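Researcher: Re-running this chain for the archive, since the previous output was lost when a drive failed. Same request as before.
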Amino acid sequence: MGVQIAALVIFVGVFVVGTLRKVHIGVLMFAAAAGVGVWMAGMGIDKVVAGFPIGILVLLVGVTYFFSIAQANGTIDRIIDIAITKVGDRAFFLPLAFFALTVGISAMGSPLAGLVMAPIGMPLAKKYNIDRMLMGIAIGAGLSAGGFAPTSLYGIVTYGTARAAGIDLDPLVLFTVALAANVLLLATAYILFGGFKLLNNRTVDGLGGNVPRFSTNRPTPSHPFEREGNAVRSRQLVTQGVQVLDDPRRTPPAAAEKMNRNQIITVLCMAGLVLTVILMAFLGASPDIGVLCFAFASVLTLCDPKSGKTAVSKIDWSTVLLVGGIITFVGVLQTMGAVALLGKAASGVGTPIIAALVICAIGGLVSAFASTTGMLAALVPLALPLVASGDIAGWAVIAALGVCSSIVDVSPFSTVGATFVATVDEDDRPRITKLLTRWGLSMVVVGPLLLVGALVLPSSF
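Model: Regenerated structure tokens:
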């Protein structure tokens, strides 16, 4: 038992060191997995490497490549411009519009890509007398919900690792749970931060056809899922990456322009991807979303070779390495029996419901300060002993854990929350920081109670 405990301590230690030193945790995890596997578990290096999740690699590369083409050819910019223009000057619907847009953007492979909406939404919220907390939560909730789409990283990591462990978690069910939970949180924000008072607010200078132009073709951080907890660095990210032009002489918005041929084909491929996934799931098949993305991306790159070439450099190899390194180490822990040891410890907590609450709370608390993707890759396999007895449904525990680990991301100690703070006026930052702290940390308690109560508890009867 001493060797298993030592391996678990090393696993946690790598997380702590990587977070404090702000280095790539995936690199450290892979090296540590090799060392622990060979020297402590007596495994061959080929068996250690065999634990690298090839299926998840195909998913991540295929998804990020497909949607990088859509970004490179300007399709995503067109969709955002059209959607915001349609909302016009109806202040009540602006947070809802930004929620929906952020869901769509975050569903395109990288959840944090939805942060492109923050420097646009926050100034518009001030212009329309919308509480910036309401707009921030709308964008944060959209990011969390979209991140669990079958085509996005949170969803891929969660259902990918669950299925690898033999738990049949339907990607569409996971997305539905995340979407429902975040819609509920958005409705709560509307109540708490004066959203319904906006129904009569249409007197401010409307957007009409003068929606600010912006671009999502921004430089991405080398590790898009690391938590910086630093509003200054987040502000540099968003101000460098998103340009909002207030020049009254600016050209008409892109929404007034017609989509070109490549953009129309891209929209058709995006719709085809979604419909194919839904149809295959309806027919009882298990669609390989990564392969489907490669197929549709092949069509796009043949139609527009320049965008296809540009998109290759935007494949999210950093996250592939992050998830791969963590899951490889978890595979070593499983071989050593360390995960089974955790299962015995979890059974000592009490009933499975209490154990599920504890692990969901741990996931939420740590994720408020650390990598959400890393937490999902680490905790999903470690939560498997909770469902080994069959007293509670595995899919319910994993879905609850995943959503609990993401709804805390509006905390100002994370990249998401720090970006919201950085994109409001300086005199409003202390209030937003305080409220985001309260909201984010309250989710550590509210999330497990809500998700475990709605998903795990019914499955135990």
